[in-house]
Amino acid sequence: MKRLAGRQTRFVNRQESRTGTLWEGRYKSSPIQTDTYLLACSRYIELNPVRARMVERPESYKWSSYRQHAGMEGEFSGLDIDPCYLGLGISDSDRAERYREFVRSAIPVGEWELIREALQRGQLTGNDRFADEVEAIIGRRVMNRKQGRPRKETEK
């Protein structure tokens, strides 16, 4: 991702006779447990411009995939269609309608905090069982920790 971002930055800077970075901060990723979490992450991303008050509705942000997922544009050009989106319905119109409903639906308490924390800290997006499964695969302890150094235990 670092090489890709660097290459893209150099390309855009040459094209537009500019200097500097294109993105703030570094690339962040978070392994995701299930399709349910993946759809929740999609909703989180699609609603970022709305939360930032850049637009009033997700379909108004032209750099988003929302318009294609919601059936407001033609073919999926250059966009990978993930299996959890395909699972929303049998036909394109069913999937688009269900996706629009999903994005408009009430967000469960704690969902955004879970996603935000996982991204900011590079941790897993899922439950404790998922953390245990990943831990077994990679052979390292994976846990959500609070920021900062752990407090020292005081002797009594």
Report on the architecture of this protein:
There is one protein chain. With 156 residues, the protein is an all-alpha fold. It has a domain at 33-138. 47% of the residues lie in helices and 0% in strands. It has helices at 2-15, 35-46, 48-51, 66-69, 83-86, 92-104, 111-121, 128-138. The protein starts with a helix and ends in an 18-residue tail after the last helix. The model has no long low-confidence stretch (mean pLDDT 81).
Number of DSSP helices?
8
- Care to count the β-strands? 0
Helix content: 40-55%
SSE run: HHHHHHHH
> What is the straight-line distance between the termini?
49 Å
Q: How large is the share of residues in beta strands? A: under 5%
Give the radius of gyration: 19 Å
Alpha-beta content class: mainly alpha
List segments where confidence is low: pLDDT < 50 over at least 5 consecutive residues: none
Mean pLDDT: 81
Report on the biggest sheet.
none
The dominant shape is globular
Features:
156 residues, mainly alpha
Topology of helices and strands:
Layout: H1 2-15, H2 35-46, H3 48-51, H4 66-69, H5 83-86, H6 92-104, H7 111-121, H8 128-138
Summed up, what is this model?
With 156 residues, the protein is mainly alpha-helical. It is built from eight helices and no strands.
